[in-house]
Amino acid sequence: MLRIDRSIHDQIVAHARRDHPDEACGVVAGPEGSDRPERIIEMLNAARSPTFYEFDSTEYKKVYDELWDRDEEFVVIYHSHTATEAYPSRTDITYAQWPQAHYVLVSTREPDTAEFRSFRIIDGEVTEEPVEIVDGGGSGADR
Amino acid sequence: MAIEVRIPTILRNLTNDEKVVKGSGDTLSDLVTDLDQQYPGIAERLVDGGKLRRFINVYLNDEDVRFVGGLEAKLSDGDNVTVLPAVAGGSR
């Protein structure tokens, strides 16, 4: 299951809307091993395409170094589909190389509602998981 | 000469869960050969048909090695190499 703060959820959707009709992509970082998505980082889509996304290699390195120094990891890796459903495509599955990450897909094909779904993609196998959106801007423990 | 190499999660099963390993070589290609002797199997995850795999990013210090010679990139003592699987996909 993915537990995610409402404000982060809303920022991911807003990013996807802003870049529509191109695909948007980014990550949510959190402390290593915590499974807590805490810090959203919007990434450039180097492909600038409505059907493909790829992190810009220079920006990716910079972000990774920062995570490394802070003992964080990619808890969520998100991207949007702008004309199809929020489900991993064959391409998404082929290139899913972070087994610990929740792969979040947002579909912006409908102007009023955004589909927001989360998956584990490990060794080519896709498993959808429930998404719990948490209000209040903190981890469950301190409420 | 010692080169520090940062290993991404997906390859740590090959490095006994080490995040950072050390290797040596005058070029990236030599380094990969040396790493593969220490951690068998790592070379084929990085290289395919004599070239770096398209969806694996390798950085020499802060530079994507594709821009500084690829596998022929020259290494110096104290350099850092970072291996990062590309993050990519799409709706098709």
Automatic annotation (TrEMBL), chain A:
GO biological process, alphabetically ordered: proteolysis
GO molecular function: metalloexopeptidase activity; zinc ion binding
Ranges where the MPN domain occurs: 2-125
Magnesium is among the record's keywords: no
Keyword flag Zinc: yes
Alphabetized UniProt keyword annotations: Hydrolase, Metal-binding, Metalloprotease, Protease, Zinc
CDD domains listed in its UniProt record: MPN_like
UniProt-recorded name of the protein: M67 family metallopeptidase
Species this protein is from: Nocardiopsis eucommiae
Species classification: Bacteria, Bacillati, Actinomycetota, Actinomycetes, Streptosporangiales
TrEMBL record, chain B:
Gene3D superfamilies in alphabetical order: 3.10.20.30
Highest taxon above the source species: Bacteria
Name by which UniProt lists this protein: MoaD family protein
Organism expressing this protein natively: Nocardiopsis eucommiae
Lineage: Bacteria, Bacillati, Actinomycetota, Actinomycetes, Streptosporangiales
